[in-house]
Amino acid sequence: MKGTKRRMSFGSIMSMNFGFFGIQFSFGLQQSNMSAIYSYLGADAENLAILWLAGPVTGLIVQPIIGAVSDGTWSPKFGRRKPFFLVGAILASIALILMPYSETIWMAAGLLWILDAANNIAMEPYRAFITDMLPEKQHSLGFLMQSFFTGLGTTLANFAPAIIVSFGILSLSDKMDNGIPTFTYWAFGIGAFASIATILFSVLTTKEYPPTEEELIEMKAAKAEGNVFTRTIKDIKVAVIEMPKTMKQLIPVQFLTWFGMFCYWQYITLALSQSIFGTTDAETDFFAQAQILTGNINGTYNIVCFSVAFLLVPLATKIGAKKVHFIGLLLGGVSLLALPYLDYNTQLFSFSNPFGDGIVEVSQIYLVSFGLGIAWASMLAIPYKLLASSLPAGKTGVYMGIFNMFIVIPMIIQIFSMQYFLYDLLGSNPVNIITLAGVCLALAAVFTLFIKSHRVKELY
User: Fold this and answer.
1) 3-state secondary structure (DSSP) of residue 3
2) What pLDDT sits at residue 1?
3) Which end of the chain has fewer CB atoms at under 10 Å, N or C?
4) Alpha helices (runs of H) in 41-104, residue ranges in sequence order
5) Which residues, 6 or more positions from 31, have their beta carbon under 8 angstroms from its beta carbon?
6) How many helices (H) and strands (E) does the chain have?
7) Are 88 and 79 in contact (CB under 8 A)?
8) Which domains does the chain show, CATH number per domain?
9) Exposure pattern of 414-453 as b/e (b: 16+ CB <10 Å)?
10) From CA 120, how far away is CA 58, in angstroms rounded?
């Protein structure tokens, strides 16, 4: 029967989203370490882009399929979305454990394919989970809770290598037989545990709503029409044809945002190594130091992310979600444009090392993290908030999957354009690629201003 979705407590919303922490810990390890791992295994800078192909391709294939399949799934014992969380977490944990043992570039790339597929299996239903469980008035809080756990999980993932080294047990020069630093092995091991443990917590503490009678009738009718594959393809095709206007207006915003972020993740380590130390040689300790610095910068912007995530809720209520996203993306773009001009040797402040002896000095380069952190909090929540109220009930999984195609398609375009002409066009200089990323975020901010919300009536 139709019922009213109960308003959930803050603690319950936190519990249901805790698994997002583990998923994003895994993504954080990828963002800060995969380019370095490829470089340690002998990859050239101009070939890095193509080696990141796993993420967007698996997202393109897996997310809409998993979204459509999870829409039509229901088990009184296991639920609708939770089985996908658990399967994804198990596969991701296995890939994380094996990654530091990679002996060749292609072994690492193969494991990245498995890892990204697993993370997408777990993550895509999590977006639909919000609209399944929460009344519309709590959508902002639900999605921003995911931003909070994204920031927290990615922060700890990014800082993990630096923390491990700070304890004094390992040093920058400690390496495994394949040339990958030992601190990378320990960081990925921690990520494997976080992935499975947090998902289990959410699965065991959250009970899903059963489908309405109308949804059950639709599920039975769909199953009578054919097998899972044909039904899924049909659902995706119909959803694309009937795509809400708000979703269409978000396409250029998402395209520019994720094109820019992929440029950043791929080349930030090389850009820092080149601009600060004057080398991109992966065999030097300077490069290892740039890898650590990448994690620290990424960790700092994720601290900013989870620190401001909940502040965006009242701000979005007061001035509108669209304006919040415009401001966030613009700040992120300006920060990346400023990165080449920030001085690593100019110290902003210092504090005692909480994980070891000595003083931690924070240089001017970390200013980029503040604007990027606000942008990251916004891009992980506000587009979904803008979209959620325009989606028909019972189809949120497939539409969230299709929406995530607007993330992975620009990544695929970025990979091939970077591989075959952009890298050379930008002077084969990774610093210029970071500048391009800043331009993309600033343009995305402009396109945000053209979005108009088109609401549908909630069917619960």
Assistant:
1) coil
2) 33
3) N
4) 48-51, 54-71, 82-98
5) 154, 158, 265, 298
6) 20, 2
7) no
8) 10-208+236-448 (1.20.1250.20)
9) bbeebbeebbeebeebbbbbbbbbbebbbbbbebbeebeb
10) 7
Please compute Rg for the chain using Cα positions. 21
Report helix angle 139-166 to 182-205, nearest 10. Answer: 150
Q: What pLDDT, in 10s, does the model give residues 237-256? A: 887 888 888 888 999 999 99
What is the amino acid identity at position 133? M
206: left (phi over 0), alpha (psi -120 to 50) or beta: beta
The per-residue pLDDT for range 96-153, each reduced to its tens digit, is 999 999 999 999 999 999 998 898 888 878 877 887 888 878 887 888 788 788 778 8
Reported confidence tier of residue 2, pLDDT bands at 50, 70, 90: very low
| Lowest-confidence segment of 114-128, 267-281, 366-380, 407-421 by average pLDDT | 114-128
Identity of the amino acid at 460: Y
Q: Taking all residues of the chain, what is their mean pLDDT, rounded to a whole number?
A: 84
The candidate with the shortest Cα–Cα distance to 30, out of 274, 266, 230, is 266
* Residue 281: both structure tokens together: 């040689």
Backbone angles phi, psi at 283, to 5 degrees: -85, -5
- Distances, alpha carbon 124 to alpha carbons 223, 233, 399, 417, in Å: 22, 17, 10, 27
CA separation for the pair 335, 371 (Å, rounded): 6
79: tokens are 């639920």
